[in-house]
Design goal:
By secondary structure, the chain is mostly helical. The chain has 8 helices and no strands. It has one domain: Homeodomain-like (Arc Repressor Mutant, subunit A, Orthogonal Bundle), CATH 1.10.10.60. The longest helix is centred in the C-terminal third of the chain and has 26 residues. It is elongated, with a radius of gyration of 19 Å.
């Protein structure tokens, strides 16, 4: 069974535009489908809403930026979040800890407790599984048929 073409196109678009503001109206205009249909079809195929997926993808993408001395605000804005507060809220929702605790985890700060470490590792694993599931979904996309030029004989 092949993956849904529309959902594949949306997934690719989201990955290519992570750092930009994306609305459901914009997706509806780009893909020429009703926004309700887009949201329902995406949820049915991927088992997560478009914006939960987008925020998860953005947070997952932002994790690698903590390896450097970047400000959290810089990380947030470079991953498509328009405010530090919303980024922190989504980070805590998805990772289970605040960005500050995550930075402490990376620096091996001894003040971070085992429950926080387990939560971070578990949520990184969930994000990785989501990415793997989406990659498998995209690989099941129906190959595009090649246009064959018809020969006209006179």
């Amino acid at each position: 069974m092949f993956s849904n073409e529309l959902v594949c196109d949306i997934l690719i678009f989201l990955k290519q535009n992570l750092n930009k503001e994306i609305t459901i109206d914009e997706l509806a205009n780009i893909f020429h489908f009703n926004k309700t249909y887009i949201m329902k079809r995406f949820k049915k195929e991927i088992n997560i809403t478009i914006f939960d997926y987008l925020n998860s993808l953005r947070i997952f993408n932002s994790l690698s930026m903590y390896n450097y001395d970047n400000y959290v605000s810089y990380i947030a804005y470079n991953n498509g979040f328009n405010s530090l507060e919303y980024y922190s809220e989504m980070f805590k929702k998805i990772m289970g800890v605040s960005p500050i605790i995550y930075r402490k985890y990376l620096s091996r700060d001894i003040s971070i407790n085992k429950n926080e470490i387990d939560l971070i590792l578990n949520n990184i694993n969930k994000l990785d599984q989501l990415n793997n599931r989406v990659d498998r979904y995209l690989k099941m996309r129906k190959p595009k048929e090649k246009m064959v030029k018809s020969l006209v004989f006179k």
